[in-house]
Design a protein that fits this description.
heterotetramer, A mainly alpha (about 325), B mainly alpha (about 300), C alpha+beta (about 525), D alpha/beta (about 600), A: about 325 residues, mainly alpha, two-stranded antiparallel sheet, 14 helices, about 75% helix, B: about 300 residues, 10 helices
Chain lengths: ~325, ~300, ~525, ~600
Amino acid sequence: MTLLSALLRRTALGVATLFVVSVLIFIGTSILPGDVANIILGQMATPESLAALRAKLGLDEPAHIRYLIWLTDLLSGDLGFSKAGAGTGTVGTPISEMLTPRLINTIRLGGAVAIVAVPFAVTIGLLAAMYPGTRLDRFVTFTTLGLISVPEFLVATLLVLVIAVQLGWLPATAYISGQETGWKLVRALAMPALTLVIVASSQIMRMTRATVLNVMSSPYIEMAILKGVPRRRIILRHALLNAIGPIANVIALNLAYLVSGVVVVETIFAYPGLAKLMIDAVQTRDLPLVQACAMIFCATYIVLIFIADMVSILSNPRLRHPK
Amino acid sequence: MAETKTSFEELPDAPPRRRLRLSWTGKLGVVVVAFWMVIVVIGPSISPYHEADILDEALFIVPGSDNPYPETDYQPPSAVAWLGTDYLGRDTLSRTLFGARTTIGISLASTLLAYLVGVTLGIAAAVGGPVLDSSLSRLNDAILSIPSIMLALVIIAAIGSTIPILIVLTGLIYASTVFRIARSLGLDVKVSDFVEAARVRGEGLWWIITREILPNVAMPMATDFGLRFVYVILFISSLSFLGLGVQPPQSDWGSMVRESLSGLPYGSIAPLVPAMAIATLTIAINLIVDDVSAHSGGRLAGRMI
Amino acid sequence: MKDILKFQQMYRDGKMGRRDFMAALGALGVGATAAAGLLTSAKSLAATPQKGGTARYANNLHGPDDQMDPMVFTSGIDYTRGRATYNGLIQMRDGMVLAPELAEEWSANADATEYTFKIRKGVEFHDGSALTAEDVAWTMTRHIGEESPSTAKALLAAITEWKVVDSHTVKAMLSSPDSDLPAKLTEKQMKIVKMGTEDFRKGNGTGPFVLESFEPGVRSTHVRNPNYWREGANFEALEITGITDPLARANALIAGDVDLINQVNAKSIALVDSSETARVISTPTSAYTGICILKNTAPGENDDFVKAMQYIQDRDRIVRSILKGHGTVGNDHPVGPAFGPDHCSELPIREFDPDKAKFHLDKSGVTAAELFVAPVRLGIEEICLLMQANLKKIGFDLTIRKVPSDGYWGAVWMKEPMNVVSWNMRPTANAQLAIQFAPHGNWNDTFWHNDRMGELLQAQLAETDEAKRHAMLCEMQTLVHNGSGMVIPAHVNEVDGASNKIQGIPTVPFGALGAYEWIEFAWMEA
Amino acid sequence: MAPLIEVDRLVIDARADSGVMTPIVKDVSFGIERGEVVALIGESGSGKTTIALSALGYTKPGLEFTSGEVRLEGRDVITMPPEEKRDLRGQRVAYLAQSAAATFNPALTIGEQVTESPVLHGQMSREEAERRAEELYRALELPDPDRLGQRYPHQVSGGQLQRLMAAMALCGKPDLLILDEPTTALDVTTQIEVLKAFKAVIRQEGAAALYVTHDLSVVAQIADRIVVLYAGDVLEHGNADQVINRPSHEYTRRLMAAVRPPPAAGQGDDALEEHLREHPALAVRDVSAGYGRQMDGSVAVTVLRDVTISVQRGHTMGIIGESGCGKSTLARVMSGLLPASEGAILLDGQQLEPDLRRRDRDQLRRVQFVFQMADVALNPRQRIGGILGRPLEFYFGLRGRERRQRVAELLEMVELPTEFADRYPEELSGGQKQRVNLARALAASPEVLLCDEVISALDTIVGANVIELLKRLRQRSGVSFVFISHDLSTVASFADEIVVLYAGRVVEQGPTDRVLSPPYHPYTRLLIASVPELRIGWLEETMESQVAQAGIDRVVTMTEVGCSFFDRCPLAIEGVCNRETPPVRHLPGGHAVECHRSEAEFLEGIQAA
C-alpha cells in the first residue's frame, strides 16, 4: 500500500468514525431529560411557555429530522447557531464564533503542557529504562505511580493553595481574555499547565520506560551488547527507535486527553477551554454546540492517532520502505 | 540402540518453567493489596461508626472544660474520631473503612465488566470476519474518541446514578480500551498454529475463542487489568468531582476527597486520608503489575555496560 | 429592614458606636458576621465614592445559556449583566425602599386595578435612540399571556394590558387588585429593552454600562455609559466572568484575581474572612431551600409523614453548622424574618423533636421513602444528609437519590414524591406565598390546594390596612406551616465576597451583592 | 605458542528463581589457536552457545559464571572491568548469531550496523569503516555492494542478511569470530553459499573462529578441530578428521548415525503392496491458489499454479522445494485452510469443498494436518491429555474413561509415557512435543496425514527418531502421508514418491528412485547437489561444479511467462525458456519432468558438470 492510498483509506475511516460519533451523540443527547427550552426557562417553565419557546427555537421537529437538518448544514460548512445569549431573540451566536476562542485556549494550554511534558517525560522514562532496578528507577517509578494515583482535582487544589494562595506567586485562576501575551499569558497558563504536566508526564514516563524495556529483550539488543555498544547508545539508538511507535501512541492519547478530557482542571482554574464548553453545552442541552464539540474531539483523536501511526511508520523502515 | 537411548536422553527443551518471583516492591504491593482486601471484607464491622453517622455535637468537648466545640466538621484527629471528621462532621476513619468496599467493589465490578465485554467483542472482531471487525472497530473508535467524562455525564443525566448504572457505564466506557488490546492480541493468537489446528479439525467459533484463544491472551490481559483497575478508580473519582458519583451518604474514596476538599485550607486531613487510600491501593497494584511485566521483558537491560 | 438602614446611617454620622451598632443589629435578629458586613458597608457610606477602576466579578453559574434577554433571566450572572446594561421602571434600594428608575413617578387608582407610570424623559438607549412609552409597553407586554416564556410572568399575572397613553406615559390595566405591583416591577426580569429587539446579544439598554463584549459561558466586558441619564456608576469598566467551583472562586477572590464573587459557600466563609484581602458580605434574606413532599401522592398525602419530616429537622444545627450562622431558622413557611413586619413572628418555631417525629412516623405507617436531591442551592445536600442521619437514629431509612441539577426542574421537581426545591426571595411576602402556594397555581410544587389560602392571597393584595394585612399574612403563614407538604428548615443568607478595596455595596436582600445594585453604587478604593 | 583463547575449567550455572544453581556448563576446557576453526557440536541444551558467549565475557540473563577462566591472550575476559569488556566485544571478539533476521535492528540501516562497532571503538573513521564494509560485501559476494549499506535489513534476503552479519562481525578485524549456528535457518542451496563465503573470509582475514552447530555435515566442511558436548560436558575433543572418521565416543557415533545419507536412488522404502482401490487416497487436480482473495474469486498473489498430484493409498508422497516454492501452501490447500482458487481436491475420488468450513466433519477427520512447529502448534494452556482427547471427543464422541484409555494408547503409539497426559506442552522437549503433535493427528484415525516440515526444527538425533517412528506408524496403520520438507535427504529416506516444486509449479514428480536417479530436472539436480555430505572437502568440490555456481542462492521468483527457473538454470535456452511455459515430459515409470530440455539433454548437462 502506498502512503497516499493509506492516507485516503484513513481519511475515509475517519469520516466514517465521525459519522458514527455524530449519530451516537445525537441519540445520547436525545434521551437526556429536558431540552434547551427547559433549561432556559428552568424552574419557572409552564407547559404553555415551553411549547411556545420550543416552537420559536425549532425544537418541535422530530429528532431524526433535526439530525438530518444538522447533517446537511454541516456538510455545507455551517455548524449552526447556539442558543447562547439569544434569549427569546431570533439571533443566536454562530457556533464557530463560540468555538474559536475556546479552541485557541485549549490549544494554548495543551500545547504548553505538551512542550514541557513530552520531552521531560520521555527523557526521565529513558533514564529509568537505562538503569532499571536502580535507585533512580525506583524513585521514578514510585513518584510517577504516586502522581498517577492522586485524583487530578486534589493535585490542582493543593497547587492552588500552596502556590497561589499561600505564596501568591501565580494567579489562582487562569481565566484569560485572549489578549494576554508574553509573560502575562505564561502566568495565566502556569497553574493549569503545571497540574496537567504532572498528570500527563507520569503516564508518558511510565509507558516510555515500559516500552523501551520491552524492546530491551530483543535479540538485536543482545547483539548490540555483544558488539560492545555502550549503554547510552543502545538505549538512544537501538532501543528508542524501535519503541517510538508505542510511545508516539501514548503521547497521542495523552494529547487527545489534553484537548477533550481536562474538564476537571478547566473547572478548577476557570479556564475557558473546550472540555468545559462541551460539559456546559450538555448541561444546557445546546445540541448543535454539543455536536460541534464532539466533532472537534473526535477529529482531534483521529488526527492524533493518525499522526502517531505515521510516526510509527516513519520510524519503522519496514513500513516506510516496503520491499 | 536400546542402551544408547538410555544413556543420552533428549535434553529438555527449556529449563523448568520459571515461576513468577516478586521483588521486595512487588511483595510490598501484595501486602498492601491484601490489606485492603481484608478491609473490604471486615471494614464495616470494625469501623467505630456507620458511614452515614453525623457525629453528635456533644462528643466534641473542648479540653479542660465542659464546653463543646462550636463545630463538628473538619475536626482534627482525636479520641472520638481517630482520623478526624469530614465536612459534615462524619468520622473519616469509618467512612474510609466503609468506602473500601464501595470503591474497590465498584471498580472491580466495572473492570470485570469492561473485560467481559471488551474481550468478548475484541476476540469476536479478531476472528469473526472483516465485516464484523470493521463495524465493531468503527463503533469502538467512535466511543474512544468521545471524552469518557462527557459520555458518563450524558448517561447519568439520562438514567440516573445508582451503583449498578455506575458499574455498567464505567464498564462499557473502559470496554473500548480493552477491546483494542483484546483484538490485537486475538489477531496475534488467531494466526498461531494451534488455532489453525483447531480450525482444521473443524472446531466452531465458540470453542476456538473460549478454549484456544482466551486462555492464551489471559496473561497479557491480566497485567493490563491491574492498570485498568486503577484508571477506573480515578475515573469514578472524577465523576464524583462533577457530582456524578455514588449516592450519598455512601462513601467512596474519590467522593470523600472531593466532598472534603474545602477542608484543605483549614489543614483538615479529611480529604487526604481517602486520597492516601487510593494512592496506596493503586501504587500497590502497579508494583505487582510492574513485577509481572518485568518478568517477561527487559531482562537484557541488566547486561548493558 | 428600614431599621438597619437607619442604624447604618446613625453609625455613619457618628451618632452610634461600633459596639452599639452591633448590639442593635443583634436585637434585630441579625447574626454577628452579617452585622459585621453591615458595619463595613455602613463604614463605606462614610467615605466619598471614588470614580474609576475595573471591577472584576465572578459568578458561580455560567454557561452557554447565559442570556442578555431580561425576560428569560434565570441566573445571577444574567441578573448582574442585566443590571449593568438595562434599567427597570422602579428599583429597590437599601431598606427595601422603592425608588424611581425609568419611571419618574407612578400612581394607582383606588382599588389598585390601574397603574399609571410617567416615563423619564431624555433617556437614551446605548444605540442612541430615545426611550419612549412604546418601548416600555412593548417590553412589559412580553411578560403577559399563557405562552409568554417570561420567567417572571407569575408576578404580573393580574395585568391584562399595557397601554401607551402618550409618548412618556403608560398604563397597566389589572384584572384584580394588586397593591404590590410596584414592588414586583423591581424584579430582575422586568428590565426595559428597545422595542422590536431581535438580537439581544448586543444588550441595547439604557443602563449604566455599555456592553462591550459578550462571550456566553466565558465572560463579558462593559464600559461606563457616558450618556447615562443620572450620575451613574463609579467603576470605569466591568469584567463579568464565571468560576463554577466554590473553592476556586473563593481562592480567586483571596488571591486578588477577581474583586467580587457571589455564593461564598459555608466551607469557604472562614477562609475569606480570615484573609487580609477580602471579606464576606452576608445579607439575611428570605430565600430558602427545602424539601417538597407532594400532597397528592404517597407518602406525602399522609399528614403525619409530613409532620415527621418537619420535626426531624435539626434547625439550629443546620443554621449553626451547615450554614455557619449565615441563615435564619425556617418555620416550614416561606416568609422569613428578612421580610421584617410581614414575617409572622407570633408563630412558634417547630423545634427539632425526634420523639415527636417518631410518633408521627409510626402513626403514618410509612416505612420507606425516597428523596431526590439536586444541588439546587448550596447546603441542601448537607441538610438532607443530616435529616437522613437523624431519621436513621429513630429507625427510619430514607433513601437519597442524588440527581444532576441540569434538567432537574423538568424531570424531577413536581414529579417525584419527595424532592428538593429552592426559591429566591420575592419582592413581597404575598408574592412569596403566592408563587408556591396559590391553589392550582403553576408552581404549586407540593400540590397543596387550600381554598382559604387562595382567598387570603387575593384579599391581602386589595387590603390597605397595615394591621389587617399583617393578620392575613400571618394566617397564610400558619396555614402553610400546618398544612402544606413543604419542609423549610432554614432561610439562607445571601453570602457573597468582595475585595477589601470595594466599598459601598448596598444591602438589598433580593440577590447577590445588594441584589446587583453594587454595579451602580459600589466603588473601588484607588 | 599459547593459544589465542583458552577456556579453562569453565563452570556456568543457571540461577533458578528459588536461588538454586543448576550447572549448565560443567568444567569445560579447550583452546583455539590463531587461524584455527574449532567447532562446538552438540544438541539443544548441551551448553554450546553458553560456552561460545563466554568468550565475550557474556552470559545470557539468568546464567552466571561460577568458576574457571576464559583467557584471551592470557587475560581473563570474565573478570574484566566493563569498559575493557566493551572494547573487547566487536573489536577483538565478534559474534555471529543464528538468526540474522532477528539480530539486525530493523530500524537502522545495514551500513550503520555493520560499521558501528569499529567506529565506536575508534578503530576506524566512518569513511574507513564504510570502505572496509564495502570490501567485505564484495568478498562475501553480496549484490550491489556500493549501495547495500543504505538499505534496511528487511530489504535483503535471509541468506544475504546472514552474510551481512559476517561482514558486521569482520568489519572490526577481530581476532576471534564466534559463529553460533549461522546456517541452520537457511535453505540448503543458500547454506552452501554462506558456508563458502564464511570459510573464504575466515581464511583471508586470518582470524580464529569458534563454530557452534548441531550439524555434523556442516562441521565437516569448516572445522579444523571439533569439541563434542553433551549436557555441559565435553565428551570428545579432537581434530576434524579424527572425530568424523574415527569417532571414539559412543555419543559421537550416535550423532554420526543420525545424519541422513545424501539422497540417491534406491533409498525409498520398499513400495507397499497396492491397496485395491480405484481412486488415490488424495488427489489434487489443476489447483491454483494464492493470497489476497479478491471480489471475483481470483487472488492477488498466486503461489501455486496448475498443480496436479495424487497420493496413493498407503503411500508416502514427499514434497520438496526451497522456501517460497509453495510447498506449505500446497498442504494448506489440501487441508482446506487456504481454499484453492481453481482446480479440485479429491478425497478417495470424492470432490472436497475448497474451504474447510464447508467440509463435513468426517471429511475433515480423514485428512489430518501435522504442523511444522510443535512449539506453537500445541496450545500452551492445554494439557497433553486434553490436546489428544479433543479430536477423540470431537470426531468419535469419546468421553471419560474411554477417552482416557485411547489417549494412553495414542501416547504409547508415539512412544511416550502415558503419564505425559497430565503435562503441559512446555514441560516436554522438542522431540516429545512433535510426537504429541503427531499423536493428535493420529487420534482422528485419518486416511491422509499432511506433515509440514515436521522434523526441520529438531536436532539431528531427535529428528531421526521421529522419522523412525513415522515409518513404523505407516507400516501399522496404512495411512497415506504427504511429507513436506526442504531437506531432500529426509524425504528421500522416507517417501515412495517425490514431487519437486519450484515457484508454485511441479517441475518434476515420480517414484523416489526415479526422481533421484538421472535424468533430473536441472532444479532437482541443484537440490541434490546442495545437500551437504558428512565428508571433509565436499564443500569445495560442490562449489566447483557449474550447477551450483549458477543456481545457488537466488531468490525464488515466480514469472508470468516461461520457466520460473530460467535465471538460475544452467541449461536455460535464451528465447525459449523465458518465453514459453515448459512442456511436461513423461518418462517411464510414472516419472514426469516439466522442462524444455529433452531427456538426453539432461544427461548431457550432468556429464558437462
